[in-house]
Design a protein that fits this description.
Order of helices and strands: EEEEEEEEEEE
Largest sheet: 7 strands, mixed
Number of strands: 11
Number of helices: 0
């Protein structure tokens, strides 16, 4: 049974930082492209960042220079370091694992507000 469990969300002031984690089980983690997506109220889910099995990274233009995705294959965990957070970053953030199959986590809420 595949499980992706996100953690690290919360309420933060504009300009602050958060680090999201996603712990995976039930998959050969090192073979998967891992990604973070987000969905704000009334908007479609969008890609935030991806890291391939070869550690190639891809970012949405809106987060370049502020967010960093990384992975620890020994811990089956992918991270999203989010700095200089803006109110527009407010959303539910979802972890994604993609190979021949695609799997999703349950999401973690990030709220950026003063």
């Amino acid at each position: 049974q595949v499980q992706l469990v996100e953690s690290g969300g919360g309420l933060v002031q504009p300009g602050g930082s958060l680090r999201l984690s996603c712990a995976a089980s039930g998959i050969i983690f090192s073979r998967y492209t891992m990604g973070w997506y987000r969905q704000a109220p009334g908007k479609q889910r969008e890609l935030v960042a991806q890291i391939t099995s070869l550690r190639n990274r891809n970012y949405a233009d809106s987060v370049k220079g502020r967010f960093t995705i990384s992975r620890d294959n020994a811990k089956n965990t992918v991270y999203l370091q989010m700095n200089s957070l803006k109110p527009d970053d407010t959303a539910v953030y979802y972890c994604n694992a993609a190979n021949f199959n695609t799997h999703w986590g349950q999401g973690t809420q990030v709220t950026v507000s003063s």
